[in-house]
Amino acid sequence: MFSSPLIPALSILIFLPFLFLIAPRILLLTDLQISLSPDELDDVALFHKAILASSSHHHRTSSSSISHLGTTTNPKPKIAFLFLTNSDLAFAPLWEKFFHGHQHLFNIYIHADPTVQITPPGGVFEGRFVPAKKTERASPTLISAARRLLANAILDDPLNLYFALVSQHCIPLHSFPFVYKTLFGSELAALRDFGTQSNHQSFIEILSDDPNLPERYVSRGDNVMLPEVPFEQFRVGSQFYILTKRHSLLVIQDKRLWRKFKLPCLNVYSCYPEEHYFPTLLSMEDPKGCSHYTLTRVNWTDSTDGHPYTYEAPEISAQLVHTLRKSNSSYSYLFARKFSPDCLRPLMKLASRVIFRDSNCVYN
């Protein structure tokens, strides 16, 4: 009685929509089977949503064309600024001045430790907090927070093509137009890259010759990182970076290395997962697509307990800003850290006439 050829065909037609509906859930269950903790459930769901949304948008825009005049129906690409903090954003007024007049070219996302009381900033920062979880040093929580920020930014706006991770202690060293042009180049190149999901490089420090690398490699135990991460491929770098969209997607898609870097640290004095995971992953997957240096200036002279040197208000001057901009690469530093909150007032005095007055500034 079921020999009609229409029955199998109808069954397939009925089943296909059901398959598309449950496919993401199947992927989620697959992830859960490879040792995901209950605390990661929300993150995995978020990552899948961001990946699927990006894939869908890329399919719709991959055929967009650019005329000989450099015009396109697509809006301009944006920079997503990702603030990772466990205290008040003391320099919000300075960043507000930095962003002023360029609202169509950036987005802001803030991951604030929910266990700490933080005063929400207003202006362009208002309402820009993402769902957050507790963070602490010498643990993989800072990696998770950064991945969470990347996923939220990817999901929120498909025009986000660069993702700049900064802290509450970071300040801009140039005007927004200078930063935008440094990252995207000419307007035509920026528009072209929107259609290709960006072919620019990521600016992330990747070092293989750090003297403390052996100690850091075994901070979770001997041979624990094998076979996924041989010592020869283990890297160290700055916690803060600027990633392209393709590398940001690579980060939130990763499961293989994450299974190793999320393991608990046995030696907390040599374990800084956030300084190892991102440089190691990108070095293994796309070393030629990365600068191997950061555009965030950090002073490690007189560092204390693993923290870089902190500038105080009496040290703020025009000369300091000019000095912090200088780098050994072909690019000027765009941001700097670490500054104490009392630096805000002198920095605001320098903002218009020094920090954001860089029209004649040239690359080093």
TrEMBL record:
<dbReference type="Pfam" id="PF02485">
    <property type="entry name" value="Branch"/>
</dbReference>
<keyword id="KW-0812">Transmembrane</keyword>
<dbReference type="InterPro" id="IPR044174">
    <property type="entry name" value="BC10-like"/>
</dbReference>
<keyword id="KW-0808">Transferase</keyword>
<dbReference type="GO" id="GO:0016020">
    <property type="term" value="C:membrane"/>
</dbReference>
<protein>
    <recommendedName>
        <fullName>Core-2/I-branching beta-1,6-N-acetylglucosaminyltransferase family protein</fullName>
    </recommendedName>
</protein>
<feature type="transmembrane region" description="Helical">
    <location>
        <begin position="6"/>
        <end position="28"/>
    </location>
</feature>
<dbReference type="GO" id="GO:0016757">
    <property type="term" value="F:glycosyltransferase activity"/>
</dbReference>
<dbReference type="InterPro" id="IPR003406">
    <property type="entry name" value="Glyco_trans_14"/>
</dbReference>
<keyword id="KW-0325">Glycoprotein</keyword>
<keyword id="KW-0472">Membrane</keyword>
<keyword id="KW-0328">Glycosyltransferase</keyword>
<keyword id="KW-1133">Transmembrane helix</keyword>
